[in-house]
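Appendix B, example 12.
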Amino acid sequence: MSDVYSTSVLFEHPLNEKMRTWLRLEFLLQQLYHCPTLNDISSALPFFRTIADLLDVLERGDVRTEMLKELERQQQKMLQWDGVPGVDSERVQTLRRELKNSAAVLMSVPRLGQALREDRLIISVRARLSIPGGCCSFDLPGLHIWLHLPQEQRDSQTTIWLKTLDPLRNALTMVLDLVRHTEPFKNLISLNGFFQDNAEDADLLRLRIPLQYQLYPQVSGYKTRYAIRFLSLDSDKGVIPARLPFELACC
């Protein structure tokens, strides 16, 4: 059995509001697409609550416009690599086609999340989520009867709901994957639990911290500069090493 204390923990911190929104969307979509089978209220409520959170995030800004801009920006970056000695031109061309196709699909779909906003069952559940205990069977008899339908029928409906999110999920996955691979991890040392540097118009900080120290980062930043303070999980007895080795990628 491997020693868990020999591993590291990956932390990601957004450096602008755009990336903050995208990471939240990714977090919510991962939960939805890996949800268990909806066979009772205990499995259904987390699913509907996550849908409600997703719709709230989508309503706070024009996610599609920002995503289309990023897909175009990534296409231009791919174009700069095309023909460079040592670069796999075929792979570059493939990525450009995938980015272009993803943008075309994203542009062609209706307003993101609109099908979910208009679904009667989702509307009824969403309206009761903010009320403590507001999803009881007497509050939501429609959900109660839906959970008694044949499992195949519920699975089919869940698949339909998730399929409406595929264009967003595919574009987001592609963009975040490219962003995360723009810079390699570097081995660094923080002194007395503190580190700061320039971000140079980066979107995302990625940190790997050895689990053995049981520390987590608190990041603050403004424009092109950021600072990281490492804090102990045990605020009373935890120790911050004078010299802490960690890995950082500024993407």
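The CA atoms of residues 137 and 144 lie 5 Å apart. The longest strand covers residues 215-222.
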